[in-house]
Amino acid sequence: MAVKVDRYKCGYCGACVTVCPADAIELVGVCLEIRESCNECGVCVNICPVGALELKNER
Amino acid sequence: MREERYDVVVVGAGPGGSIAARTAAESGLNVLLIEKNQEIGVPVRCAEGVSKRVGDFVRLPKECIATEAAGARIFSPDGTCVELSEKTTQRRLAEVGYVLERKLFDKYLARLAADSGVEVRVKTQAVSVLRNGSFVKGVVTKDAFGDTEIFADVVIAADGVESKIGRLAGLETRIKPADLEVCAQFYMTGVDVDEDFSEFYLGNSIAPGGYAWVFPKGERSANVGVGIEAARSKNGARALDYLKAFVRRKFPKGRVLGKIFGAVPVSGPIKSVADGIILVGDAARQADPLTGGGILNAIEAGRIAGEVVAEAFERKDFSKDSLREYEERCKELNESLMKMYKARLLVSRFSDKELNRLARSLEGVKFGELNARELLKELIKRNPRLLTSLAKLFLS
Questions:
Q1: Rg for chain A, CA atoms, rounded
Q2: Are the beta carbons of A29 and B123 separated by less than 8 Å?
Q3: Residue A49 to residue B239, Cβ atoms within 8 A
Q4: At what angle do helices B15-26 and B295-315 cross, to 10 degrees?
Q5: Spelled out in words, what is the top-level CATH class assigned to the domain B67-97+176-266+349-396?
Q6: Distance of CA B26 to CAs B138, B155, B158, B333, Å?
Q7: How far is CA B188 from CA B69, B75, B97, B201, B237, in A?
Q8: Using the beta-carbon criterion (under 8 Å), do A11 and B160 form an inter-chain contact?
Q9: Average pLDDT over residues A29-55
Q10: Is B263 on the interface with A (CB under 8 A)?
Q11: ipTM of the complex, rounded to two decimals
Q12: In B, which residues are within 8 Å of A14 by CB distance?
């Protein structure tokens, strides 16, 4: 499990970066990067204004 | 790794960062302003409304102003309209007087900074802070040329809602979803709007814990957006879902020319200085918790930050005790923001019925001064029982 970004939906607003308790998200220019420190808490998934983030199995 | 040395490095070329950089450079400091995006002002993450008081801080060139609103209309869920208008009061409108072109406005402010001697670097991301003990001594940047260590006596972090630099420096900048507004906005054309008015729509089915807005941008175009409390956002009920529903109802024939997403910190101000670092604007959570407006506060705080840093150089003291003068001079701003935060806690919990009742209580009122604070005062006067806790805040 890890948070995945749908780049076609992401509007690079930075909301997820702001609330992430694990400091696992970085907005590099307009590209969202999820780091390994993600603890899959799902806070970002709910607050995303466009639904660009998803918790899903890697396989 | 490449190494460079400046007196001050400012992270983020939004209004707060550019004004801070310019103010510091005007007192003779060697200042670097870095911006992670490749173009200053782009992408826009803002509804672009700002109080006309912005003119007290910078001269606004015409091309930076899309429209100048003479008033605001606030609609309760049942459509009851509260109108704040320059025309009826003969006073200057304080809240949302101009709708800006942020793409141009931000570039204009960065140009003022550059003209004052600030070195500007775009497409450059600050990825970590340099430290010496408890002191922040600069930042590490990444750009097309690789990594660079940029040493500076003071870092001014104006890096927006994410506020990463402050967090890297040990300040608690994370905010909980209840203290964040998440926003979706369409730049639309073919919409019939009254260009003289900014419109605000309240209601739990329109924008839970926030509001929808229509800010005219001229020629039948407008910024149409919705902000909701992040804690109330969930799958199927996100900011974008609410915006689509609002637009379907209000502007079914409009066309979308741009989509903009944003987040506004509404926690009220946080601790914003540490050894060698000052936070400015959204990074310091200086947006108005009730209205979400942040441009003017960022500019005001940016100027103060630049002045305080210049004075710190005279003292050669960059400790948090020395930089605390910044918080001292932001005190009036911060106190006002805390009041608005408490007001927000109350207002964002009103039912639609209560919102309707409040709006109706204002029928026929002519506002003396046109801003959110005066609106609250008038509401309190007319609804003393409903608003006891607000009254304690604003009438004392």
A1: 10
A2: yes
A3: yes
A4: 30
A5: alpha beta
A6: 21, 17, 18, 24
A7: 18, 20, 20, 17, 22
A8: no
A9: 94
A10: yes
A11: 0.94
A12: 45, 160-162, 262-263
* pLDDT given at position B294: 95
Q: How confident is the model at residue B227 (pLDDT cuts 50, 70, 90)?
A: very high
Say if the Cβ atoms of B43 and A12 lie within 8 Å. yes
Position B377: which residue type? K
Interchain contact, B182 vs A26, CB within 8 Å: no
Token readout for B183 is: 């926003």
Report angle CA B31, B271, B277 to the nearest 5 degrees. Answer: 25
pLDDT the model gives residue B166: 97
Indicate the fold that domain A2-56 takes in CATH: Alpha-Beta Plaits (3.30.70)
Beta strands in chain B (DSSP E): 2-5, 8-11, 31-34, 49-50, 65-68, 71-75, 81-85, 98-100, 119-121, 125-132, 135-143, 146-151, 154-157, 180-189, 197-201, 211-218, 221-229, 255-265, 273-274, 277-279
Chain A environment of B260 (Cβ under 8 Å): 11
Q: Which amino acid, residue B28?
A: G
> Could you please report the per-residue DSSP string of B32-48?
EEE-SSSBTTBS--S--
Q: CB contact, 8 Å: B165 with chain A?
A: no
What CATH architecture does domain B2-45+103-174+267-329 belong to? 3-Layer(bba) Sandwich (3.50)
Listed in sequence order, the residues at least 6 apart from B290 whose beta carbon sits closer than 8 Å to its beta carbon are B266, B340, B341, B343, B344, B347, B372
Instruction: State residue A1's pLDDT score.
Output: 62
Shortest Cα distance from A59 to chain B (angstroms)? 23
Peptide bond preceding B265 in cis form (omega within 30 of 0): no
Q: Does A31 touch chain B (CB under 8 A)?
A: no
Comma-separated ranges of CATH 3.30.9.10 domains in chain B: 67-97+176-266+349-396
CB B298 within 8 A of CB B283: no
* Nearest beta carbon to residue B43 from set A18, A21, A30: A30
Name the residue facing A49 among B174, B175, B240 (closest C-beta). B240
pTM given for the model: 0.94
